[in-house]
Amino acid sequence: MLASTEHSPPVSVAETLAGTAGIVDLWYWRCESATESALVESCDPLITPDERDRFKRFRFERDRCLFLATRALVRTVLSRYANVVPGDWRFASDKSGKPRIGHPAITPALHFNLANTAGLVVCVVSVAHEPIGVDAERIDREVDFIGLADRYFSASEACTLRALPSREVPRRFFAYWTLKESYVKARGMGLALPLDQFSFTIAGPVISVAFDPPTAEDETRWRFALIDASPCHIIAVGANTGGAALSLRATHIVPIESGLPLE
User: Is 106 exposed, middle or buried (0-12, 13-18, 19+ CB in 10 A)?
Assistant: First the structure.
C-alpha cells in the first residue's frame, strides 16, 4: 500500500530552511490541463534564451508542455525558499547532468531534483541533504514488464515480479523503476551505474536497498519513499540522510496560478 500525496504532511518551508535532518519537500503539479499557449504566455518572460531554444527543439507538443511546466515548477518552488524572483534563477549541471543552482548564491544552500512524466511534474527540495533524487512515472501504460525486469533489474526483483498476481505486476514494476531512478539521480551517476547492481525490497512502507556486489556505498545511510500522486502516477524519492528517518512533506502547486510574480 503506497502513501498518498493527499495524506502526506504539507511542506513547511520554515522547518525545511532550519536544516533538520531527514526533511525533504516534494512539490508536484498535475499539469494535464495546462495548454501550450498558457504555458508559453506564463513562462516566456522567465526562461533564458538557452531554455527557449531547447523548448523550440522539441518535436511534440507534449514534450514542449512538460519542459515548460518543469521550468515553471522549479522556479516557482525555489522562490518559496529564498527572496529571489522566479525569473532570476540560473541553473547549471554537474558532469552527469544533475541540475543545481548556478545563480544567485543563497544561504542556506538549496538542493533540488526534478522529474516529469505525462501529466505530472515534480520537484524535491532539501537543505539538510544534498544527495536527493526523484522520479515519476505513469503506471497506466502497457510495457513488457517481465522482459524489461530481466534485462534491467536484479535477479531478486525480477523473481519477485514473476511471483506476483498479474494485476499487481505493473505497480510493482514501476515502483522498482522509480526507486532505482531516484537513487541514480541522487548519486548523479547517470548510466554509469547499472540498474541490476542494486536491489530494492519493499515491505509495506519500509523500503531498503542492497548492493550486489557490495560496494563502498553504505546502504544504511539511504532512505526512500514511494507515493501515489494520482490513480495513474507513482513517485519515488531517495535521499542520503545519513541514516535519519525520511520526513517527506508533499504539496500540490499550480505554478502559473500561484500568485507569485513570474517576471
Answer: middle
Instruction: State the burial class of residue 258 (Cβ atoms within 10 Å of its Cβ: 0-12, 13-18, 19+).
Output: middle
> How many residues does this entry show for the chain?
263
**Secondary element (H or E) of residue 131:** none
Q: How far apart are CA 46 and CA 55, in angstroms?
A: 13
CA distance 173 to 58: 28
pLDDT tens per residue, the chain (263 residues)?
Answer: 466 566 789 999 999 999 999 999 999 999 999 999 999 998 888 899 999 999 999 999 999 999 999 999 999 999 999 999 999 999 998 877 789 999 999 999 999 999 999 999 999 999 999 999 999 999 999 899 999 999 999 999 999 999 999 999 999 999 999 999 999 999 987 667 789 989 999 998 899 999 887 666 889 999 999 999 999 999 999 999 999 999 999 999 998 764 444 43
- Overall pTM surpassing 0.85 (yes/no): yes
Quote the DSSP letter at residue 221. G
